[in-house]
Every structure is written in C-alpha cells, then in structure tokens.
Design brief:
Length: 324
C-alpha cells in the first residue's frame, strides 16, 4: 500500500467517531498499523533491535509519527496537531478464541511530545490479515489508557484508565463493555466500594462472574493538586449485579524519600551504597546482586535498585524518550 501526500494531509489527525461504532476506513491509519514502508531494523546494533535509530543527531523510533514525518518531510510543529499512530503505551490487546486480536485505546508519549494523544478507538487484527478500526464519540467512550481489558463471554470489560488530567473523576472507577459481535461500547453504571480512579492494574475473571482488580495506581485529589499513589487493596466487581466489593483492608502507608536539600546526583555507574541514608540509624541486609541494596529503618524494610528506566534526548529539534 502506498500513501500519497494528499491522503496523508487528509487523514493525519486523530479524530473521534460519529457513531457507536463508526468504521474508520482511513488508508493512512491502516498504513501506520501495518508498518508498510518502515525502514528495516538494524539487528546488528542494540538500538536497532529495540526499533530505534540515530538520525540527524536524534534518537528516533523506526515506527510511529517519526516514520510518517520522514516519509512526507513533515517538520515537528505542535500547532499542526498530533499525527495518528498505532505506536502507543497503555493500550490493551485481547486474543480471542477465533483468532482475532482486539486492541483498545492507549496513548502516544506524554505532554512534552507534539504527537501526544490518548486514543479511544478499537483496532481489530483478523487471522487473515484484515485490519479494522472503529471510532467512537467521546461521550460514548472517553480516551482510555492504562486500563484493563478482560474477556467476559462475548464482551470485553474495560475497567479504569488514566486519561487526560482534566477529565479524571476522583473516587470513580469507569467500567465499559465492548460487544464483540458488533463492536458497540456501553458504559456500565456500578455501585459499592469501588477502587477509585485506577490505572496500570491487573484484572482477572473467574467462573463465579467476578472480575478482581489488583495493584496499579490511584489518582486522588490533594487540595488543588492531583496525587498518584499505589493501590494496595484488592477489589471485586460482580458482573451480574454491577456492584463493587473491597476484598482487603491492608491500609498500608506509602512514603516518598527525597534529600533535604538539592537533588540526587548519580555517577555514571553508581553503587547502591551511595544511596544509603546518612544521619539516621539503619541496618544493612545482605543482597545477592551489586545493583540492589536493602536496609532496615526502625525495622521497616527499604529496597533500592540502581538502573536506567528511560533516556531523555534533548535538542533544539525536539525531545524523544528511549521508549518512544
């Protein structure tokens, strides 16, 4: 499949559907999903194996919006809006018994990126290679990322999600059902003791008709700010009654540790012992690796792990993270 500049200009922007669902027959979007025309990966380098390359002094992914920008010589300009992409974080993929794979939502990068966008679409990959994209009105299915997707009979239950900062509803847990026969999405009103605005969690379904939610993170209102903390409790959603029940009552406390003055400045290859606290009593606990350190403060265990989670590449031409 070849995409002309005219088609790209017409179809480059993300958009909501006008029906529930609307079949989005957009050649550029399908081209982006299939990855046609993408440069081959350089498997002789570690960056190439991960799907990245160095171009014009920048770390660029071989897929996603940068591929389209390279193909059509499009400069990075936030005012032009994001380029639609299937290169996303926080999307779910559900493998059905008939061979279909259903992808729901997800986001591309974060606010700093001109192509940042949170999607509310559904993409179906069929065993015979067909690609189908379904869009939805924002009112029917808001943008969703870092949610869970659980197959429940002929539906996929979508629970939670992070979403845009100004669209979060503190204390509420959104639940939607995707009908696998026609791809219609319906919101499921629920009651009971729900987790709250939860994301990045795990979900499981059992034969009793219960979806159990564990782990993840919660967004809570803290004065005029939003605060993200870990979720330590387990919750059950009863499918038949649409009611939530809290299963645990751990009430564990969560702490953040920072230096009294300044910031942590790490060496190129820091050792865990350089991060041990000073000025307070602690007891070291032997560890099996050189990258980990464990100690006790007032009999409370604290673990440290030294490692790189992502890379920032800052330049006048833009910003790119190591996992973009």
């Amino acid at each position: 499949m070849e995409i002309s500049r005219e088609i790209f200009d017409q179809q480059r922007l993300p958009r909501f559907g006008n029906a529930n669902p609307e079949r989005m027959r957009l050649a550029f979007w399908e081209w982006m999903i299939r990855g046609e025309g993408a440069p081959p990966r350089n498997t002789k380098s570690r960056l190439g194996e991960l799907g990245f390359r160095i171009q014009d002094g920048m770390l660029k992914p071989s897929c996603g919006p940068f591929r389209a920008r390279d193909a059509f010589n499009i400069p990075v300009n936030r005012e032009d809006g994001p380029i639609w992409t299937f290169d996303r974080m926080g999307a779910t993929n559900s493998h059905l018994p008939d061979g279909r794979v259903i992808y729901i939502g997800g986001e591309h990068e974060d606010l700093y990126d001109p192509d940042f966008y949170i999607y509310n679409d559904v993409v179906t990959l069929a065993p015979d290679g067909r690609v189908e994209i379904y869009g939805y009105p924002k009112e029917a299915f808001p943008p969703a990322d870092f949610h869970s997707a659980t197959i429940v009979g002929d539906r996929i239950l979508v629970v939670g999600g992070l979403g845009y900062e100004n669209e979060r509803r503190f204390g509420h847990t959104p639940v939607y059902a995707l009908d696998l026969s026609n791809y219609r999405i319906s919101e499921i009103p629920t009651s009971g003791e729900m987790p709250g605005w939860i994301s990045k969690h795990e979900a499981s379904y059992d034969s009793k008709g219960i979806v159990t939610i564990r782990g993840g993170q919660l967004v809570q209102e803290h004065g005029t700010q939003q605060q993200i903390r870990r979720n330590f409790e387990d919750y059950a959603l009863h499918i038949n009654s649409h009611t939530w029940k809290r299963l645990t009552n751990r009430n564990w406390r969560e702490f953040s540790i920072r230096q009294e003055k300044g910031a942590f400045v790490l060496e190129h290859d820091p050792k865990p012992e350089t991060l041990l606290p000073r000025g307070i009593e602690y007891t070291s606990v032997p560890q099996g690796t050189d990258e980990d350190s464990r100690f006790l403060v007032a009999e409370v265990p604290v673990s440290l792990t030294v490692g790189v989670t992502h890379i920032l590449n800052l330049s006048s031409r833009g910003v790119c993270r190591g996992h973009c």
